Amino acid sequence: MWKITNLILLFIAFTTLQSSSQWISQYPNTPGIGLGDIKFINSNTGWACGDGIILKTTNAGANWISQIHPATNKFLANISPVNSEILYCIGFFETILKTTNGGTNWIALRNGPYGQGRSYEGAFFINKDTGWVCGSLGTILKTTNGGETFENNPIFWGYLKDMYFINSDTGLLSGEWGGMFKTTNGGMNWERKTIPYWNGIGSFRKLSVVNDSCVYVCEGARRVYRSINFGDTWDSAGYVPPMDFPYVCGFSCYNTGWVGGSFGQLYKTTDGCSTWRRDDDGTDQRYIAAMWFLNNNTGWMVGGNTKIFHTTTGGLTYIDHHGNSEIRNFELFQNYPNPFNPNTIINYELRIRNFVSMKVYDIAGREVDVLVQSQLPAGRHSVKFDGSHFTGGVYYYRITAGQESETRAMILLK
């Protein structure tokens, strides 16, 4: 958190030079409901999806309308618009949705029971008929008939997070533990690409594709990687040293991009990752999960507690128009890996010293394990949950620190 004097000087500078330079909140804060993706097809029309919700705007986000769909109990991780009418939305537990009228009606191509089956996080459709979906257990699905049928060509490589195709043959795929793959035959075969300097920490999540050649991706150790030949070779583009834990990057051109992550931290570069500066004032604590940029000035980002922020001036600071942002004394992260078998790691961070209790509950709400029960100092902490003695299914882990609590779900596969 910056000192008050720095905030005052910064406020004066912003007021004098460009009072409209800011990230503006476009949606009310809804604790416990996160957003996982956002996509636009032009400067006005876009969609966002997340914890059981799909939102649509036709006026650049001034208003977001919740759409009715058949998977309200699922986390929807990715939305893939083909045009203003045809979209696909995918999520956890065998969920693939489709609309042919801009979201007025959504149908379920797949909608498995909660807590069962594979979870999908990446999708890309090059036209109304042909597209790919990826997710847990190395799953890669392909359809050529608009989702009537899918063929499965898994690569048996952990949890796959995102994908992007520039034509019907050539595509990229990212995943956990440094997984980066490329296909040149429509997904029949995937070649794993070498990532130099990767130290084994964190996963590659969403790809940021600037054009048919330049691609960026970031990982949890704060390093940003770049390819200038659409994934044939990769190199380290830069390092974001002040950041806590990066989740996603978004680039509007070769030189200009943002990296966002935990506690709402956002950093911006305008020189191709050589230098970075903080692009928020630290008051918004909700994590950043996805970004979409129209150009160097105009973009959106989404994340925890239904965060939707929009800028038309290239960023600079946050303004919460809804006036109810929430700052907690802790941050609880999603367990990793998830789904898992039999072990998973739960990370959390305390902003002040506090007495912490973390317990695990089964789907019926019965307490099954106590992971933490002690006074802990401020800082980042990790705890392992061993599921080897439990049956497969959905479990919940709940942290209580002082007077505040938060619960997240995790999936044990057996």
Strand order of the largest sheet: 26-27-28-1-29
* CATH architecture verdict of the largest domain: 7 Propeller
Mean pLDDT, rounded to whole units? 85
Major sheet details: 5 strands, mixed
Report the sheet-strand fraction. 35-45%
Structural class based on helices, strands and sheet pairing? mainly beta
* Global outline: globular
CATH topology of the largest domain: Methylamine Dehydrogenase, Chain H
CATH class type of the largest domain: Mainly Beta
Please give the domain count: 2
How would you describe this structure in keywords?
single chain; 414 residues; mainly beta; Methylamine Dehydrogenase, Chain H; Immunoglobulin-like; 2 domains; 5-stranded mixed β-sheet; 4-stranded antiparallel β-sheet; 1 helix; 44% strand
Descriptive report:
The chain has a five-stranded mixed β-sheet with strand order 26-27-28-1-29, with no helix packed on it. A four-stranded antiparallel β-sheet has the order 2-3-4-5, with no helix packed on it. The chain folds into two domains: 21-319, 7 Propeller (Methylamine Dehydrogenase, Chain H); 330-412, Macroglobulin (MG2) domain (Immunoglobulin-like), CATH 2.60.40. The protein has one helix at residues 4-18, and strands spanning 23-25, 35-40, 46-50, 54-57, 65-66, 76-81, 87-91, 95-99, 107-111, 120-125, 131-135, 140-143, 151-152, 160-165, 171-175, 179-183, 191-192, 208-209, 215-218, 223-227, 235-239, 246-251, 257-261, 266-269, 277-278, 288-293, 299-303, 307-311, 318-319, 330-332, 343-350, 354-361, 367-376, 379-386, 393-401, 404-412. It is mainly beta. The chain is built from one helix and 36 strands. Helix content is 4%, strand content 44%.
